[in-house]
Amino acid sequence: MNEANLAGFIQQIIGIKERTDQVLDSCFKNRKSLRQEQSQAFKKLLNHEHSSDRNAQLLAIYINWALKHEGHKLLADDHEHVLSLFRSLNSSDVFEKTYLRQLAARLLCKTGYDLDQEKKLASTLKPECSENFATQTELMFANTAESEALTQSFISTHSKLAFADFTIKVIEQKTWPIDTQGVAAIASPPPDTEEQKGAARSRPTSSVGAKDKDATQATPSKAELVGLPKPLSDVFNSFAKFYKEQFRGKRLDIVY
Q1: In terms of Cα–Cα distance, which of 201, 203, 228, 224 is closest to 214?
Q2: What distances in angstroms separate CA 22 from CA 2, 38, 96, one per listed residue?
Q3: Contact 215, 197 (CB under 8 A)
Q4: What is the pTM of this model?
């Protein structure tokens, strides 16, 4: 089943909530007892014994679909509905995990996201979510902004070498919930002691993806390891040199 069909379930629930809200407002003057009954009904619907985790995932999928395919307008109108449904979930941890993974993909791959809209939605959810959710989203947005500035700085000083659409993101270790499959660019500070080797890590990504790298592993041979075409390999190696000059003590590698 594609993402649009999965998101459709949440759309239907939001539609039902809008209609019942209108009825309660126009016919019953928002009677408190009826509002409580409405809230309990949605909690029962979303937390059915065999579908609680799945519905938490579907709410995150709906957000992902709306941000990518609805020009951000639908979600802007639905923040309160999304928040209301989230408050009804028992499996909020499942929602957070799915949402953060999809947010990372949108930011890294630039798949139709609007950074201001992303920040606005995250701010809406933060008071209701865990401390880890707030910390991760803040760091991801900070890394994204810093990387865009770093990319522009590199392009401005290497205009003859960098591609017009060249982009790279420097992201912090363990902050981004990304899959371990694919090609990645990694920035790592050299460890000073055996005890620090496992801890002295940070991580970036180019537009091809991202991945953790333990500093105790053998250092791969940069772009040659993944067989990048020479024009792209030249750009990456130049950026690695540029990055090292900007951040002393860190190295930039590409690993699988």
Answers
A1: 201
A2: 31, 12, 30
A3: yes
A4: 0.78
